[in-house]
Write a structure and sequence with these properties.
Rossmann fold; about 20% helix; alpha/beta; 4-stranded antiparallel beta sheet
Length: about 180
């Protein structure tokens, strides 16, 4: 019999979730939000974010693969704005893709974000809102910004379901809640 993992309770868009705690580095523990398959939470979070994002300030939603894709899709429907996914693996059909490197707190290894050549026209010269499930270190946002800079897009907003770590670091990010980082 295995023991129950420790959790952190949080309410997001009126819905309670008990997030499992995970040690990402020696002595550093975070709560893990995994929205994949949680349709109820994705829909509620997207509706709430759509109401908080000033529609006149962005033309396109941009997210990074993979866990935030359902959020970007639901937000796209709720806000009536298109969305683009920056991929983490290059495929030959992506043509002359633009790219930038990032390091996620949950993977701990460098990853590359790719903008498919077919999506370049959708963001070139446009105002974009960067959307993620959780913003923790900011490395994914930096990677997304770098790709958008290469695409001549202007990042006007950043949004997430949750921010994590130092709340002062994320005052510019529109979020539905905040998670602490636990250190031993």
């Amino acid at each position: 019999m295995t023991s129950q993992p420790k959790t952190h309770a949080i309410t997001i868009a009126g819905l309670r979730r008990d997030l499992p705690l995970f040690e990402v580095a020696p002595g550093v523990t975070i709560a893990i939000l995994n929205i994949l398959g949680d349709t109820e939470l994705v829909q509620a979070a997207a509706a709430e974010l759509a109401g908080r994002l000033p529609a006149a300030e962005y033309d396109v939603i941009v997210t990074a693969e993979a866990k935030s894709i359902p959020l970007a899709h639901a937000l796209s429907v709720a806000a009536g704005k298109p969305y683009i996914v920056l991929r983490k693996t290059y495929k030959p059909y992506m043509g002359a893709a633009l790219s930038a490197e990032t390091v996620s707190i949950t993977t701990g290894a460098p990853q590359t974000l790719y903008l498919d050549e077919k999506d370049l026209a959708a963001v070139h010269g446009r105002r974009v809102a960067l959307v993620d499930d959780v913003v923790s270190t900011g490395s994914t946002q930096k990677g997304m910004r770098a790709v958008m800079d290469k695409a001549a897009a202007t990042v006007t907003l950043e949004a997430a379901i949750l921010t994590e770590g130092d709340p002062a670091q994320w005052q510019h990010c529109i979020a539905l809640g905040h998670l602490p980082v636990w250190t031993d």
